[in-house]
Amino acid sequence: MRIKGNLIVISGPSGSGKGTVCKAMFASMTDLHLSTSATTRKQRVGEQDGVDYYFLSRPEFESMIAEEQLLEWANVYGQYYGTPVEPVLNAVNRGQDVILEIDVQGAFKVRKKFPTCVLIFLIPPSRSALEKRLKNRATDSDEEIERRLKWAESEIQQVEYYDYLIINDEVEKAADKVVNIINAERCRPALLDIESLMQKYR
Amino acid sequence: MRIKGNLIVISGPSGSGKGTVCKAMFASMTDLHLSTSATTRKQRVGEQDGVDYYFLSRPEFESMIAEEQLLEWANVYGQYYGTPVEPVLNAVNRGQDVILEIDVQGAFKVRKKFPTCVLIFLIPPSRSALEKRLKNRATDSDEEIERRLKWAESEIQQVEYYDYLIINDEVEKAADKVVNIINAERCRPALLDIESLMQKYR
Hints:
CATH class of the domain at 7-35 and 96-199 in chain A: Alpha Beta
Distance between the termini of chain A: 23 Å
Strand order of the largest sheet of chain A: 2-7-1-8-9
Strand content of chain A: 15-25%
Largest sheet of chain A: 5 strands, parallel
Number of strands of chain A: 9
Oligomer: homodimer
């Protein structure tokens, strides 16, 4: 079966700059579909259902798990987070590339269910650079930051299982690299209509 | 063993526009190494030894075959053509990407000897577009053109073995796609110094 669009997974440790790089990338590529996660955590002021997240009740989320309607999911501190599979498949089937911005464990779950996905690992150039980012965003305690840094160290060990590695030194450069990768992956024979090309050569 | 540079093979039927696309691509990427072929055919006026080709005698070429100093070679109408392996390895080992512009049969021979190479298939959008190109360059008889068109039809059947397919509709667009592919392939974990990245996270 021909795939029509690519599923591009942008992943990396907490604080790697996934969100910022994605935002910069979306500025130059407007034809992408950004996947929206589902969650059971409370909707915050200013957040829109279906835009920031799909806000679900616990039974709703658990029935999605049971019916395998999630590409990946995790329970983080008692709240569920996951990627609904249907919007992803719809976009891919109409030939749109889908961007999934998720953590490292989620990325490998997606690879398992969707082996043709493209895995991009994003990481700051060093532990101290990552530490600086985590401190700057000021959302975590020192203990939590230390835990995240240790986690990052172990996540890098998995980088060989990724298709691409981007050292996030400068946001614009990193975003350009993602754009290059997306454009390159659009040239995969599996994605193109080889049958109709062959017909044009008969 | 870590690869330091990529070997990028740009291939496609005779008349696909490989040379024109490569020229356009070299205008925007100056840090590439273009592989120079060796041949036993006579040096023409204006051609430089070591630039257009390495011009070799028949015994010189045959000793290179015997000593496995060629990445691929072929005998075309009684003249040898081939790719000396040493300059390719030297460039790759110093971290430079190498561009090889060769025919489809050569491309598969390179893949066999150098499995990590990147294969790009370039092809005009249709048989009639290819025919027009072949007629425009006015180097082949009608019979030869017909033979090349049939050949192209069979070469397209192999496209699934390529890493990338580029429909050469407009030279600039096709060259941009090659540039995207080269930049994307530079983000492969196998090409990057993961060991030193890991050290920066200890």
